[in-house]
Amino acid sequence: MSALTSNLKINIMKTFNLKPLFTFISMTLFITFVIFLHSCKKDKKEKTSTTVVYVAGTKETSSGQRAILWKNGEIQTLSDFNSMANSVFVDGNDVYVAGIENGIAVIWKNGKVQQLSTKSSVANSIFVKDKTVYTVGQEIIVAKLWKNGFSTSLFDEKNQTVAYSVYVQGSDVYAVGLLYDNGSNLAQLWHNGITQTINGSLPYAMAKAVYVENNDVYVAGNAGTKLIQWKNGGQQIISYDKDVVVSSLFVQDNDVYIVGQLGKSASLWKNGFKQDLFMGADAKSVFVLNNDIYVVGYGLEEANNVAMLWKNGEAQNLGDGSNASASSVYVVQE
Questions:
Q1: Which has the closest alpha carbon to 293: 265, 247, 255, 321?
Q2: Distance between CA 306 and CA 300 in Å, rounded?
Q3: CATH for 250
Q4: Which of 49, 102, 175, 210 could bridge 333 with an S-S bond, Cβ 3.0-4.6 Å?
Q5: pLDDT at 42 over 60
Q6: Is position 32 within any domain?
Q7: Is residue 13 very low, low, confident or very high in pLDDT (cuts 50, 70, 90)?
Q8: pLDDT tens-digit readout, 186-212
Q9: Which helix (H) or strand (E) holds 7?
Q10: DSSP state, 16?
Q11: What is the C-alpha separation between 99 and 304, in angstroms, rounded?
């Protein structure tokens, strides 16, 4: 390379200082990156989760009762036969419903039916843990637990028993129900198949719902006209009101929610304090998510049952819920 060429290159570089150009390019890339990050964050904000409310119930038709499922108010008929849907549970993308079809205990998974028995039976409650499906109810006169379809009797056949509710925490399976013994009704708690009568000094009691939080076992039920709550076996009378019937229980952050019917009013008790939801109605199930309280049941409209949902106490009729009742609610974020 000649001296003239080298001097020419040096003079060009001196004439055109490239440092501002590099600075400009760097700043442009930085601003583009910041805009990209902001766009990603905006997309994430726009893709907020949606609350989905699943409700199981039963609708009266000219051909008989039909098990149904609502998803955000849109109704789906689960069976073309005489049937009832008693309990709903959601696990990931799978929706499970427990009930009865043609007098036989069944579950529906994503709308597909599976028989749990070949005898007269009913499935009252369902819970799914680690893809294992637990269902409780009654077969002929015996309380039953079905685990992935395989049945276990919770009591012998000498006395009539029924299981109303099931809850699973870790490897522990809890169920509650009722034992009829020599004219007495005895509230039962089953823990891993071992039964315990929890009446205490009460001559008559019925356990209707069970829930476990932080290893504390909560049970709700009735004793005559009393509303009873048990926590780890300790008994507390919540209400002495006449004609109270308990249906469901939910616990979140040590707050205890119980629903049922008091007289002719659908009612909710939170930590023992009662709220009347609707006159001429019955509350059958409660679920709490993100501090929102969901209750389902039914009310009367022109002498016909109407399936209803209460969210934080505000009532709304479920879609196509005329001549229908709602029995169970489960709420998820999708």
A1: 255
A2: 6
A3: 2.120.10.30
A4: 49
A5: no
A6: no
A7: very low
A8: 999 999 999 999 998 888 999 999 999
A9: helix 3-15
A10: S
A11: 22
